[in-house]
Amino acid sequence: MKHLLLSASTLLLLAGCGQKAINLVPQPVQITAQQGQFVITHNTPLVLQNMDASSATALYIQEFLSSRLGLHLPSGSDDAAQALRFILNPTPDAALPAEGYTLQANANGISIVANTDAGLVYGLQTLYQLAPAQISTQHVDAIAIPAVDITDYPRFEWRGSHLDVSRHFFDVEYVKKHLDVMALYKLNKFHWHLTDDHGWRLQIDKYPKLTEIGAWRVDRSKETWLSNIPPKEGEPATYGGFYTKEQVKEVLAYAAARNIEVIPEIEIPGHCSEVLASYPEFACDTFPYIVEVGPYWPPKAIMCGGNDKVITFFNDIMDEVIELFPSQYIHIGGDEAEKGNWKACAKCQARIKKLKLNNEEELQSWMIREVEKHVAAKNKRIIGWDEILEGGVTPNAVLMYWRGWVKDSVLIDAIRKQGNQVIMTPNTYCYIDYYQTLPQQATQVAIGGYLPIEKVYAFEPIPTGLSADEAHFIKGGQANLWAEFLFESTNVEYMLLPRLLALAEAVWSPKEARNWARFEQQLPNQKKRLSALGYNYCNEVGLIKDAPKE
Ligand code: ACM
Ligand code: ZN
To answer: For 211-237, how does the pLDDT look when each residue is reduced to its tens digit (9 = 90+)?
Structure first.
């Protein structure tokens, strides 16, 4: 690790720059700046009070202090003076909501107190943001933390970041880097989009062809995504990859230490060219499906709704996914399933007739309910994109709303009639694969659209029209990052950052604490921190007033 011995004057410089104005994103619930500071040195005792010293959180705190702040602190006893303390309440403080924490820094030391490990992890992120922004590249012998009293907790329980690893594959090392930046901004749900037409990314023992065939496509990474040049006769499929179960376990442990729940998404019944390329017998027809290399529309691939083997396949996949992922949730996709093949398929039509269904939408709902029954028997819940409402869903299904052009009254109806819970990810505020500057000014090609950071910042997860009681059915919100145009992880970071910070405030901070002018002023300092941590980001700020006329 880089460890520089710096002079007292350098210390003063680091303590002085930018630290007068406290810069925290997301904005905490309550913050009171006090006079003075506490200087953490290599001799400051680290007290982990009421904590198991070998717990993932205790180890994470120590690893974080050393790698991010260059501090290898001696451990101190509970009564140590002038200490940095992390205190787990022995009996929960009822005034502090789940994931909340308090942080008090003054001349006598720093105390971070929480009811849960999650709260301590968030207190740690806040402590890090109180340190100078450049600290990660310039470790010093002493770090001045301004005196402050903070009480903080999230507005929403679901604070998500979605990553598509099918259209382009990102390795475990990048996934961990993604989890780190999520933790820094207090996001807690990683929605891992593991399967789609362009590649299957998860080891499944019972269906090995999913990764032998379905994880690989011919390499068009030297072309633009839109060129979509089909495979030539005999051309080898060399672009792709997948995560082994061991790698997934490594990611899960890494995420858990950062209070991040990993929600796997397995797309059914559409977005499945890669499945049909691997197992053509699951299609309605004999079309030669391939692992797609570029855009195509409309999406023709759909697994046969009349074939019992398809239902067995779904259940088998769910069994392996449930065994691997501890999350209560499994995302089953359900979006954009074009049903042309089902209309022409004798097996699908026979199933519709036999079950007395009214149409193909109801056939999709029947399939999803079959899977839901299977996972519910193992105490798991499904999440699906909002299309799953079209043929009816059970009250237990969680809806992920993405189609900003479909009136949110359909959600309000589902909440009122059935009590479905909802996660808000409307494309109009949350699709961070859209351009963040005007397309003609962009330095990186995007899928289209225009979603400046100022608009992400204006995201309000509670739809108008819901009463305060009904608002409780909204679990929170999430930024979605589709990866068609993201060839490298640096491209991912460019689209993610800094818009993820705006989303983080929308789902963490109290509504009344949000203020675009204040947030915009904070961005340069936050970018400095992101640079020090080695992240790429977009350096322009797109504004709502510049939006092109529709
Ligand atoms: C989606 O963007 N098709 C969920
Ligand atoms: Zn069929």
So the answer is: 999 999 999 999 999 999 999 999 999
How far is 83 from 38, CA to CA, in rounded Å? 10
* Straight-line distance from the first to the last Cα atom of the chain, in angstroms, rounded to the nearest whole number: 51
What's the pLDDT at 20?
Answer: 57
User: Which residue's CA is the closest to the ligand 1 atom numbered 1?
Assistant: 335
The Å distance, Cα 340 to ligand 2 centre, comes to 10
Give per-residue pLDDT as tens, 137-176: 877 889 999 999 999 999 999 999 999 999 999 999 999 9
pTM equals 0.96
User: How far is the centre of ligand 2, averaged over its atoms, from the C-alpha of 307 (Å)?
Assistant: 7
Whether 472 is a known active-site residue: answer no
CA of 332 to the centre of ligand 2 (A): 19
pLDDT in tens, 322-371: 999 999 999 999 999 999 999 999 999 999 999 999 999 999 999 999 99
* Burial classification of residue 66, based on how many CB atoms lie within 10 Å of its CB (0-12 exposed, 13-18 middle, 19 or more buried): middle
The set of residues, in sequence order, having a beta carbon less than 8 Å from that of 46 and lying 6+ positions away, is 61, 62, 65, 73, 74, 75, 76, 83, 84, 86
Using CA positions, which residue lies closest to atom 2 of ligand 1?
A: 402
Catalytic residue among 193, 198, 271, 331: 271
Check pLDDT > 50 for residue 13.
Answer: no
Q: Please check whether residue 534 is in contact with residue 137, taking contact to mean a CB–CB distance below 8 angstroms.
A: no
Which residue has its alpha carbon closest to ligand 1 atom 3? 335
271 catalytic? Reply is: yes
3-state secondary structure 61-74: HHHHHHHHHCCCCC
Ligand 2: centre distance to CA 365 (Å): 15
User: Which residues on neighbouring strands pair with residue 31, listed in sequence order?
Assistant: 150
Residues lining ligand 1, CB < 6 A?
Answer: 335-336, 385, 402
Atom of ligand 1 nearest to the CA of 482: 2
CA–CA separation, 83 vs 110, rounded Å? 6
Q: Please confirm, yes or no, whether 413 is among the known catalytic residues.
A: no
Q: Which of 377, 517, 378, 494 is nearest to 435 (CA)?
A: 494
The first and second tokens of residue 478, run together, are 């999430």
Average pLDDT, the chain: 94
Ligand nearest to the CA of 352: 2
CA distances in angstroms from 106 to 14, 33, 56, 139, 144, listed in the order given: 18, 10, 28, 22, 11
Asked if the model's pLDDT at residue 100 lies above 80, the reply is: yes
Tens digit of each residue's pLDDT (9 = 90 or more) over 525-534: 999 999 999 9
Ligand 2 ion: nearby residues, β-carbon < 5 Å? 284, 304, 306, 345, 347-348
CA of 122 to the centre of ligand 1 (A): 30
CA distances from 300 to 168, 228, 268, 304, 346 (A): 21, 16, 13, 12, 17
